[in-house]
Amino acid sequence: MGLEDYRRSVSETKRAAILKAARQNFLIGGYSKAAMAEIARDADVSTATLYKHFSSKETLFRAVIEEAYGGIDERPIADVGGASAHEVLCGICRIYLRQQFEDQMNGLLRMVIGEVPTSPQLAQEVFARGVTVRYGQFRKVLDALVARGDLAPHDTETSVRQLGGIVKEFIVWPALFTKDYRIPDDIEETIDGCVSAYLTIHGRPAAARIAK
Amino acid sequence: MGLEDYRRSVSETKRAAILKAARQNFLIGGYSKAAMAEIARDADVSTATLYKHFSSKETLFRAVIEEAYGGIDERPIADVGGASAHEVLCGICRIYLRQQFEDQMNGLLRMVIGEVPTSPQLAQEVFARGVTVRYGQFRKVLDALVARGDLAPHDTETSVRQLGGIVKEFIVWPALFTKDYRIPDDIEETIDGCVSAYLTIHGRPAAARIAK
Amino acid sequence: MGLEDYRRSVSETKRAAILKAARQNFLIGGYSKAAMAEIARDADVSTATLYKHFSSKETLFRAVIEEAYGGIDERPIADVGGASAHEVLCGICRIYLRQQFEDQMNGLLRMVIGEVPTSPQLAQEVFARGVTVRYGQFRKVLDALVARGDLAPHDTETSVRQLGGIVKEFIVWPALFTKDYRIPDDIEETIDGCVSAYLTIHGRPAAARIAK
Amino acid sequence: MGLEDYRRSVSETKRAAILKAARQNFLIGGYSKAAMAEIARDADVSTATLYKHFSSKETLFRAVIEEAYGGIDERPIADVGGASAHEVLCGICRIYLRQQFEDQMNGLLRMVIGEVPTSPQLAQEVFARGVTVRYGQFRKVLDALVARGDLAPHDTETSVRQLGGIVKEFIVWPALFTKDYRIPDDIEETIDGCVSAYLTIHGRPAAARIAK
DNA sequence: CATGAATGAGTATTCATTCAT
DNA sequence: AATGAATGAATACTCATTCAT
Fold this sequence. Notes:
Four copies of one chain form a homotetramer. By secondary structure, chain A is mainly alpha-helical. Chain A has two domains: about 1-70, Arc Repressor Mutant, subunit A; about 70-210, Tetracycline Repressor, domain 2, CATH 1.10.357.10. In chain A, about 70% of the residues lie in helices and about 0% in strands. The longest helix of chain A is centred in the N-terminal third of the chain and has 32 residues, at about 1-35. The first copy, chain A, is elongated, with a radius of gyration of 21 Å. Chains C and D meet through helix 1, helix 6, helix 7, helix 8 and helix 9 of C and helix 1, helix 6, helix 7, helix 8 and helix 9 of D.
C-alpha cells in the first residue's frame, strides 16, 4: 500500500512538473511554438512519460488552461461587510483584476483566443467559466447590496456584465494586446471611475453620493 | 509605359489574390497552421511569386491585418442629424458592430491576439487603431451630442470607452471565444440596453451627477 | 547499464553510418550539392535522426573533415633505422602521399578550400593540422637525421616545408585540380627527384652553403 | 553601321558589368551562394539580359575565371638585364605573387578547386594555364640564366616547379586556406629564402650535383 | 514502468531559368 | 533586344508521436 502511495505521489509530482513546464513554454511563444520535447526536458521527464500523462499536445494545453481556470472560482470573495457600496464594488473589481493578472493569466487567455479555430470547445469552456462562474460570484455581492438597499433593485445578471465590461475595456483589453503588460500605477483611480459609472446607473436613489 | 502599366495591373491582381487566399487560410486554422504553399496554390500563383510579393509569412500576415484594419477608419460615420441621442448612439453602435463582424474581422482579431508573443508590435498597432482611431470617430459624435445639449458635458474620451466596453462585453467578447459566432437576433435590444445604460450615466438631465 | 550500453552502441553505429554517407555525398558533388535528405537515406536513418547526431549541415561537414584529419597524426611514422638519409626521406614522402591520397582525402581538401568563405575557421584548422601536426612529425625525422650527421644542422622547421612544398607541387597540386586523380606510375622517380633536390640543399657535405 | 557599333559597344559594356558583378558575388560566398538575380541586379541588367550573355551560371563562372586567367600570360615578364641571378629570381617570384594576390585571384582559385567535382574541365584548364603557361614564361628566364652561365645547365622544366613549389608552400598555400589573407610584411625575406634554396640546388658552382 | 532514440510528414524559403510583353 | 514577373523543384530543418529495450 505504501508503495502504491509512493508511486502515486511520484506520478503526481511529475504531472505537476509537466504542467508547470508546459505553462511556461506555452507562454513564451504561444501554443504552436512550444515543443513537447522541450517541455519534457524542462520538466525533467522523458517524452514518453509526458505522453503517459497527457496523450497529446492539445490535451496538455487543455490541462494547463483548466488548471489555471480551475482555481479561480474557489477563491474566497470579499465579504460585503459594513463597507459602502462603492468600497465593496471596488473590492470585487480588485479581486477580478488580481485573478486576471496574476500568474500570466492574460497570456493564457491570449492563447485560448488564438486557438479558437483549433480548440473551439476549450474556448467556450473558458468563456463560460469567466462569465458564468466568475460573474456569478460577483452577482451575489450585487444582490446583497440590493438587499441592503445600497443598489436599486434591478437585473443584476445584466448589470454585473456592465460593470465587468467597463472594467475590461480599461484594463483587460489593453493587457490582451500588450506582450508584457504591467498594471498601471493609477489603477485605483481607474477602478474608482468604473465603479462610479456603474453606481450612476444602478446606485440607490443615492445619485448624490457618487464619485469621489 | 503600356508594358509597365500592364505589369502593374497583373501584379496588383495577383497581390490581391494572394491576400485573399492568405486571409482565408489564416482564418481556417490560425496563423501557424496556414501553409504558405497552400496559400500560393489557392491564389493560383507559385510560392516564389508569393514570396516576391510578401517576403515572409509574418509580412504576409501583417499585410492581411493591415488591409482589414486599413479600411475601417475610412468608413463614413453616421451623421448626428435630427435624431435623438438614443437613436444616434444606437447608430454608432451598429456601425461599430458591423465593422467588427463583417469579413470575419473577429477571426483576424483572434489571431492578432494569439500572435502577441510573436508579433507584439502588430498587436499594438491593431489595438491603437481600434481604440484611438475608431473611438476617435465615435467621440466626434458624442461631442456633437454634448454640443447639442443632448449629453451632459463630460470627458468624452473616457465615456466613449465606457460605452464601448459595455457593447464589447455583450457582443464582441462572446464572439471572440466562439468559432462561428452569429450575431444573435435580439441584437437590437442588446444595443438598446447598452445605450440606455450609457445615457443613464451621461444623459442630459443627469448632468449634475456626472463623475469627475 | 545494459540498456545504456546498447543504446550507445546503436547510436555510434548510426553516427558512423551517417558520417560515411555524408563523406560520400559530399565527395560526389561538393558541399552545396549534397542534400541532407539523401545523406540520411544513404545512411538508413531518418533526417530527424541525422539532425539529432549533427545539428546542422555545417556541423556534419566539420565532423566529416575532423574525422578524416583526426586519424592522420596518429599514424606511426617511419623509423629512421639504419637506412640512408635518401631512403628515409623517400619513406616519409611516401607516408605523406599515402595519407593524402587514400580515402579521397584530396576531395575533402578541395571542399575545405572551396568552403573557405563559409567556414573559414575549419579551413584554418585543417591548414594548421596539415602544416603544424604533420610537418611536426616529419621534422622529428629530419632532426634525427641531423643528429645522426646525415643532414647538415639547419632550421628544420623551414626545411621540412621546402621538401613538402616541392612534393606538393609535383603531386598534390595536380591532384587538387583533377577530379579522379590517380597517382602516376613514375611516382617513385618523382619522389626521388624531390628528395634529391632537398638533399642538395641540406645534405651533409653541403652544410656550409645553407641559406639564412 | 554606326548603330551597329553603338549596339555592340552597349552590349560589351553590359557584358563587362555582368562579369564584374559576377566576380564580386562569386567571391563573397563562393559559387553556390552567389545568386544570378543578384548578379543581374548588381550589374544593372535584367536576368534575361544576363542569360542572353551567359547561358547558364556555370558558363558565367567559367567566363569569370577565363577573364581572370586570360590576362595573366600577357603581362610583361621581368627582363634578365644585368641583374644577378638572385635578383632576377626574386623578381620573377614577385611577379608570380603579384599575379596571385591581386584582384582576389586566390579567392577565384579556391572556387575553381571547390568546383572540381562540378566543373572538372575548367579546373584542368586553370591548372594547365598556371603550370604550363606561367611556368613556361618563367622557364625562359631560367634558360636565359643558364645561357648566361649563372645557373648550371639542367632541366629547367622541372626546376621551375621546384622553385614554384617552395614559393607556393610558404605563400600561396596559406593564402588558400585563409579567408582574407594579407601578404605578410616579411615577404621579401621569405622570397629571399626560397630563391636561396633554389640557387643552392641549381646555382652555378653546384652544377655537378644536380639531380637527374 | 520509464526511457530517449527514431520517425516521416511537414515547413518556410530560395534559386536557376523561362516567357509573355 | 530587353524586361522582370513567374515558375516549380529543391533545401535545410522541426516536431508530435511511437516503440524497442
